[in-house]
């Protein structure tokens, strides 16, 4: 049964990883912890529900629509709430982020009501067997979509021009802008990519757990933030690894009978890892410029 | 400068108004204390309704009041009791705990009620009960099922089906009628109701010789149950005892079916709500829930059938729920006790009420034990059928 639980953990971890990527990319460039990111994930899940129930769309269209919508929302949030504060202290945009987060939560509670909403049935409950291991169709979907998105992101960051600009900006913000990179555009692009990944995570989780609620972004956002720090904030492979690590640890914890402590597991792990590797699993060593 | 002055005037007015309100409140209380309980002299017998007509608990309060009014009308149409009519004093605490105490206070001291029916929730009942006990007014809750209610004092009663009575009966039922030998028990650890109910179920399971092969814990607000369900699947139980609420119940069953487990779920009235079907969809078909009352004209007795018909006639064809039936019974219980005592003084009819034995109401048969805890029969076992709760069986308590 260990294999089965590992698979459950991997699926959960893949969704954490999708959200963690948004945290880590934004932090990598502007050193902002975007606390509204968990709410983007929640909004994405609701857009998915809306597409399926009201517009009667299938899975693929709903997923893409949620990603596009959140892309726009993410970029707008950056424009409205973070960019005007770019020159100020590091604390100001952080507080602004918390404000956006609370705004989105309350707005959704107002529009949607505080009760969780069931995610409509979009794929049938089929089970595939590999020896003693059983995998459901939803789990396959999550693992495949998450892998594709992460592979796509890696490709963009490594080989596409805007991706290279992102890396340059994250390495040295001022030098990048001196070299003629339009840093504002790069930041917008980063928010767009990060938000769309979170929206995909939201839709997938909605399908997996069959439930979407206005406050779902709080704990998921916190866990994903944890995953990002665990893997080394600012590092893209680190966020993927951190997410999966956390998902597996949490699931094994529940399977081992520590359900009450499942949130504590994530944070205990974080503390332990940071004690031994202060920059996270794959984080770059901090170099202070003198 | 000018602005400053304005502020001063305004704050002065605020202080003045606060003082005035404070005085008004104090005066009212004093007056009420002087006129403490001249109840027996009135020309009506006043019974207070403590509950919510607005806010989150309105769904419990409104039907309770409706049932109470029907009972009062029935009594009054038959000539009343002791030559007096029953009058229901309506209040609304708006689902707020703090208002619960105020309303109770007001009904006793200003309206001089002889008895209060309510609150439908355990929490507000526990707030109101010490006040009623202190003023020696009978309080009969038509909804509280939690622990520590009647222990508050000898004026405190309730006419609800208790889990301590229902869980053993349901356990026996699943063993004898459904042939369950080994079960999984799922508890929501941050939910007092669930933790308490699991304890009752586990004791009953052991007593009936059903094996608990796996226990899993969840939490209210959880959405991911894959790890727990995988653990349950490995043990292959005949059935699942789920003691939490409907939201998690629906999601849990969804995961159970997703992982290919065929077993059905049984739970308490924490699962009784349309949210169960909204969250669980097809996966909760066949899930079983017990409760103190369900309207089913085909399976109901003579008295209950008449009540259902009368309720439907007065409520545009809507069926009465548990709260309506228990509210109706609460007023009838009080009326019968007052009649038997030949007095509407709470000190006198209180002891008659405590003697209630095998009393036939519309929600079932009620006996108050020595400690005033009710034993109620039958237990209604409902089953989800095509997305709706339907009465599966009516289980009598021995």
Provide structural commentary.
The complex is a heterodimer of chains A (290) and B (398). Chain A is built from eleven helices and four strands, in the order H-H-H-H-E-E-E-H-H-H-H-E-H-H-H. The longest helix of chain A has 29 residues, at 2-30. Chain A has a two-stranded antiparallel ribbon with strand order 1-4. Chain A has helices at residues 2-30, 37-53, 59-82, 91-112, 137-159, 161-171, 173-178, 183-209, 216-231, 236-255, 262-276; strands at residues 117-118, 127-130, 133-136, 211-212. In chain A, helix 2 packs across helix 8 (183-209). Chain A has 290 residues and is mostly helical. Chain B is an alpha/beta fold. Chain B folds into two domains: 44-160 and 300-376, Rossmann fold (3-Layer(aba) Sandwich); 164-291, Response regulator (Rossmann fold), CATH 3.40.50.2300. Chain B is 45% helix and 19% strand. Chain B has helices at residues 2-34, 58-77, 97-109, 122-134, 163-176, 192-207, 226-235, 246-258, 275-280, 302-314, 322-341, 346-354, and strands at residues 44-50, 85-90, 115-118, 138-141, 156-158, 182-188, 211-218, 239-242, 264-267, 288-291, 359-360, 365-368, 374-377, 379-385, 388-395. Chain B has a seven-stranded mixed β-sheet, sandwiched between helices. In chain B, helix 2 crosses helix 11 (322-341), helix 3 (97-109) packs parallel to helix 4 (122-134) and helix 11 (322-341) crosses helix 12. Chain B is globular and about 65 Å long. Residues 22-40 of chain B have low confidence and may be disordered. At the A-B interface, helix 1, strand 1, helix 8 and helix 10 of A face strand 7, helix 7, helix 8 and helix 9 of B.
């Amino acid at each position: 049964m260990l294999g089965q639980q590992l698979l459950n953990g991997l699926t959960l971890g893949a969704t954490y990883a999708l959200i963690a990527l948004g945290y880590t990319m934004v932090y990598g460039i502007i050193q902002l912890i975007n606390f509204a990111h968990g709410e983007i994930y929640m909004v994405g899940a609701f857009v998915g529900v809306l597409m399926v129930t009201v517009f009667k769309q299938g899975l693929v269209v709903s997923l893409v629509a949620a990603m596009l919508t959140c892309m726009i929302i993410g970029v707008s949030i950056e424009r409205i709430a973070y960019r005007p504060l770019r020159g100020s202290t590091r604390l100001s945009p952080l507080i602004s982020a918390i404000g956006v987060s609370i705004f989105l939560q309350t707005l959704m509670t107002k529009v949607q009501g505080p009760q969780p909403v069931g995610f409509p049935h979009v794929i049938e409950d089929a089970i595939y067997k590999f020896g003693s291991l059983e995998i459901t169709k939803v789990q396959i979907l999550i693992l495949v979509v998450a892998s594709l998105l992460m592979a796509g992101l890696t490709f963009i960051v490594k080989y596409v021009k805007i991706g290279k600009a992102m890396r340059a900006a994250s390495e040295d913000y001022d030098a990048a802008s001196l070299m003629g990179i339009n840093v504002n555009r790069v930041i917008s692009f980063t928010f767009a990519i990060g938000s769309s990944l979170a929206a995909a995570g939201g839709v997938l989780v909605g399908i997996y757990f069959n439930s979407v609620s206005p406050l779902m972004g709080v704990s998921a956002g916190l866990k994903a933030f944890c995953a990002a720090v665990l893997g080394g904030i600012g590092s893209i492979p680190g966020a993927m690894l951190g997410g999966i690590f956390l998902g597996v640890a949490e699931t094994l914890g529940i399977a081992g009978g520590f359900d009450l402590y499942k949130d504590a597991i994530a944070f205990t792990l974080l503390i332990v890892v940071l004690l031994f590797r202060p920059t996270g699993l794959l984080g770059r060593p901090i170099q202070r410029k003198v | 400068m000018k602005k400053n002055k304005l502020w001063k005037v305004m704050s002065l007015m605020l202080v003045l108004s606060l003082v005035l309100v404070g005085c008004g409140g104090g005066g009212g209380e004093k007056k009420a204390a002087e006129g403490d309980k001249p109840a027996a002299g009135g020309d009506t017998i006043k019974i207070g309704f403590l509950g919510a007509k607005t806010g989150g608990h309105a769904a419990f309060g409104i039907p309770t009041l409706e049932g109470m009014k029907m009972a009062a009308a029935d009594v009054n149409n038959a000539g009343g009791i002791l030559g007096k009519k029953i009058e229901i004093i309506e209040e609304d605490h708006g689902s707020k705990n703090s208002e619960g105490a105020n309303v109770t206070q007001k009904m006793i001291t200003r309206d001089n009620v002889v008895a209060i029916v309510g609150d439908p929730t355990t929490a507000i009942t526990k707030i109101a009960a010490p006040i009623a006990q202190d003023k020696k007014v009978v309080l009969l809750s038509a909804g509280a099922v939690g622990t520590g209610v009647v222990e508050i004092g000898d004026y405190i009663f309730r006419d609800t089906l208790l889990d301590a009575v229902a869980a053993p009966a349901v356990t026996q039922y699943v063993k004898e009628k459904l042939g369950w030998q080994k079960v999984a028990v799922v508890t929501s650890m941050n939910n007092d109701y669930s933790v308490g109910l699991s304890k009752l179920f586990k004791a009953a399971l052991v007593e009936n010789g059903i094996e608990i092969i796996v226990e899993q814990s969840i939490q209210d607000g959880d959405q991911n149950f894959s790890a727990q369900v995988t653990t349950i699947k490995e043990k292959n139980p005949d059935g699942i005892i789920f003691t939490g609420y409907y939201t998690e119940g629906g999601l849990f069953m969804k995961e159970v079916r997703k992982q290919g487990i065929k077993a059905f779920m049984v739970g308490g009235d924490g699962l009784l709500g349309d949210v169960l079907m909204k969250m669980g969809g097809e996966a909760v078909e066949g899930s079983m829930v017990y409760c103190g009352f369900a309207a089913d004209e085909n399976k109901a007795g003579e008295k209950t059938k008449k009540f259902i018909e009368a309720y439907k006639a007065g409520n545009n064809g809507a069926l009465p729920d548990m709260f309506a039936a228990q509210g109706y019974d609460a007023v009838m219980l009080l009326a019968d006790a007052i009649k038997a005592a030949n007095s509407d003084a709470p000190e006198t009819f209180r002891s008659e009420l405590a003697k209630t034995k095998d009393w036939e109401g519309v929600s079932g048969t009620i006996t108050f034990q020595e400690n005033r805890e009710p034993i109620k029969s039958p237990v209604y076992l409902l089953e989800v059928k095509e997305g709706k709760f339907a009465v599966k069986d009516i289980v009598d308590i021995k």
